[in-house]
Design a protein that fits this description.
By secondary structure, the chain is mostly helical. It is built from ten helices and no strands. Helix 2 packs parallel to helix 4. The N and C termini lie far apart (about 50 Å).
Length: about 325
């Protein structure tokens, strides 16, 4: 008598992830599965809301916060709010890849985001200056603490050091060495090249401003709105697509967002310099372009940041 063979369910082999399984409680929505998700989302939202608030303050429609009054609050939020969030999201994702060790997820990641959000809200809640400042100052040490283990114990000791970035005309020479004209046909690459060009232009203009050949604010906005805005928007789009399992291709709406942030920099920097009599017109047009770019970012990439990877992998 021939005994029947037992039925065996065949499943594809699974390879262990170098960064470990998805943390418990983060796989339903995906938002807290990896650092780029919440920080890129709040960066995009802040880029819209803070600029809209700043324009409302300038038009007399909104009372400014007492903490860091005037343009100091606007400048502070663009650097220590928006740029800090993008930087945090990038590092919490990239350091995991560099070191092969896990970075903050789940509750730890939520606490870090919560600290950042608290620092953004503090000036509008009328909190004492020392408390608002303390929340702001605490974010970067907290981020460093979250990254300490993978950076210090990872296999590459060079990751322990932050090297100073040399600028001025050297950036142009560096870009010339990297340049490949085929990149301009790929918006996801072209936007990064454009950001480096904005940075080089801004540093050159900053030098000219020292000789009083143009207002310092022109160079400042070429560096911030141009270089920082363009590079961070492009990088957030690339990382979101790559780390959610999607092809690294820019949709028409994404390309429009890149064009709008570029227009915002042109209108707020060179246009103001060339035709200062139309300052308010350029400023409002620039603000509208900036807001439009990041509304598109949130609309396109927000659902990707909120949902799990489409390929089922952790992160």
């Amino acid at each position: 008598m021939v005994m029947p063979q037992p039925q065996v369910e065949l499943r594809p082999p699974t390879r262990p992830s170098a960064t470990g399984p998805t943390p418990k409680g983060t796989d339903r929505y995906g938002l807290l599965a990896l650092g780029f998700r919440p920080f890129f989302l709040v960066a995009g939202l802040l880029a819209v809301l803070s600029l809209a608030a700043w324009l409302a303050v300038l038009l007399g429609l909104l009372a400014p916060p007492r903490y860091l009054a005037g343009s100091n609050w606007h400048a502070h939020e663009m650097l220590f709010g928006y740029t800090a969030a993008v930087t945090a999201g990038f590092l919490l994702t990239a350091v995991r890849n560099w070191s092969g060790m896990p970075t903050a997820t789940g509750g730890a990641l939520a606490a870090l985001v919560g600290l950042w959000v608290a620092a953004r809200l503090a000036p509008w809640l009328g909190l004492p200056d020392w408390l608002a400042g303390g929340l702001d100052i605490a974010f970067f040490p907290a981020l460093a603490l979250a990254l300490r283990r993978p950076l210090w114990h990872g296999p590459n000791r060079a990751n322990r050091l932050f090297l100073a970035v040399l600028g001025g005309a050297s950036l142009l020479a560096r870009l010339a060495g990297w340049h490949d004209r085929r990149a301009w046909g790929l918006p996801m690459l072209a936007v990064l090249y454009l950001g480096l060009l904005w940075l080089a232009a801004g540093l050159i203009l900053d030098g000219l401003a020292d000789f009083r050949l143009l207002p310092p604010s022109v160079a400042l906005h070429v560096i911030t709105a141009g270089a920082i805005g363009t590079m961070t928007l492009g990088m957030m789009a690339r990382v979101t697509l790559g780390h959610t399992g999607r092809p690294m291709r820019a949709s028409r709406a994404t390309t429009l967002a890149f064009a709008l942030v570029t227009a915002a920099a042109l209108l707020r920097g060179p246009a103001v310099w060339l035709e200062p009599a139309l300052y308010q017109t350029w400023m409002l047009a620039s603000g509208a372009c900036w807001i439009g770019a990041f509304v598109l970012f949130v609309a396109i990439y927000g659902p990707m940041l909120l949902s799990p990877r489409i390929d089922g992998k952790p992160g």
